[in-house]
Write a structure and sequence with these properties.
Number of domains: 4
Radius of gyration: 37 Å
Number of helices: 15
Length: about 375
């Protein structure tokens, strides 16, 4: 009985083999399919078959290399790269890509994802990334940025300083040209919306009208009011290194504060500042003095303080001044500020002080305060430290 069972088993196997042979002869498509699996012309398939023979069939590496026309060294390199991939990305298939249902990303979507990832590698937060993308007309949400970074394996950012996000980007980003804003209904993201809270105060005190009537110049593309408010916006944003961190000139919220699409570049601020004269500043300070007096923000006492502003550029034209914070003399700009002690309002300032005219600064402030161009309360006490 056992011999009969074995014979029937072998006969059945032979019948299957014979049937397969007949099917191959009668159907050329089957022959073509067989040739596909035996072929080694497709490089990725050749790699798969060679590695499978090495790992699954446990054949020696030299034998596999010979069977698949590899040199021993190149096949060892193939083994090394495959094992390195398995160790680094165990969830990502080395040969086959999974097909997912739904909408597939276009080339533009993939380029956008690369930009988001490049910005995160430079420690930009998701709100920062959203601001930059808005500036470059990418209409995506913060949740989209989050999903891209999550799917690429990025975790939450640790607490960081601004100096950690000022390194140059691998992708060059150019801020749009600054233009006068035409007010319309639009939606954008910004990290500087807090400074917009200052606008009602400027309007209530009429400072916007003072700027428009001042002697400050405008430019062909930016009017007088927007020019001065650009300086105010940059100061309120607490950006310390204007030329190193250029994210501020891509922020739509900061631009909106000045009535612009975005703030001008650092070179514009330098160029505009060179056109401002001491007479322009004094005339504007007198106008401001009238506003502070009318609002009851000035009293009969003024604190007159010298302050040293360090300068780290080419300093041949500057003098050395004592810095109380650093306990040393350094190349700097010496300035003076007059402050009302109760309200904290800074009523007067001058940055053109040298060793030669330092002793005259107090008298110059009194000349300003006693000018007929301003209405003032009586100044009874002047507190200062001077030689």
């Amino acid at each position: 009985m056992r011999i009969d069972s074995i014979m029937r088993k072998y006969l059945l196997s032979f019948n299957y083999f014979l049937l397969d042979s007949i099917m191959v002869i009668l159907h050329p498509n089957i022959m073509k399919a067989k040739e596909y699996f035996l072929s080694t012309e497709l490089v990725i398939k050749k790699k798969y078959d060679a590695l499978r023979s090495y790992y699954v069939d446990c054949k020696p590496a030299k034998e596999v290399a010979k069977n698949y026309n590899y040199t021993p060294s190149s096949f060892y390199s193939l083994i090394r790269d495959f094992e390195k991939h398995i160790k680094k990305s165990p969830d990502e298939d080395y040969f086959f890509q999974m097909k997912y249902p739904g909408k597939h990303k276009t080339f533009d979507d993939m380029e956008l994802d690369k930009l988001i990832i490049a910005l995160r590698k430079k420690n930009f937060s998701i709100p920062d990334i959203k601001v930059i993308l808005d500036t470059h007309d990418y209409n995506v949400s913060e949740s989209y940025c989050y999903r891209v970074l999550r799917d690429d394996g990025f975790s939450r950012l640790p607490r960081r300083t601004r100096s950690e996000i000022t390194s140059p980007l691998p992708i060059r980003l150019t801020a749009p040209k600054t233009i006068q804003l035409k007010f319309k209904n639009e939606v954008f993201s910004s990290n500087s919306v807090g400074i917009l809270c200052m606008l009602p105060y400027l309007k209530k005190l009429g400072i916007n009208r003072l700027i428009e009537k001042s002697l400050y110049p405008g430019t062909t593309s930016i009017n007088k009011l927007s020019s001065i408010l650009s300086f105010v916006a940059l100061k309120l944003s607490n950006v310390r290194r204007y030329t190193a961190d250029d994210l501020w000139c891509m922020d739509r919220g900061a631009g909106l504060f000045a009535g612009l699409n975005v703030l001008p570049k650092a070179a514009w601020f330098t160029s505009y500042s060179s056109r401002i004269t001491r007479e322009m500043n004094l005339a504007f300070l007198r106008s401001l003095h009238k506003v502070w007096s009318a609002q009851g923000l000035l009293d009969d006492t003024a604190n007159l303080d010298f302050t040293t502003i360090p300068y780290w550029g080419e300093s041949d034209h500057l003098e050395n001044n004592w810095s109380g914070k650093r306990k040393t003399a350094l190349t700097s700009i010496l300035a003076i500020l007059a402050q009302s002690p109760d309200s904290g309002i800074i009523d007067y300032g001058d940055t053109n002080i040298t060793h030669r005219n330092e002793v005259d600064v107090v008298l110059e402030f009194l000349d300003f305060y006693n000018s007929k161009a301003i209405h003032k309360p009586d100044l009874k006490y002047l507190v200062f430290d001077s030689k």
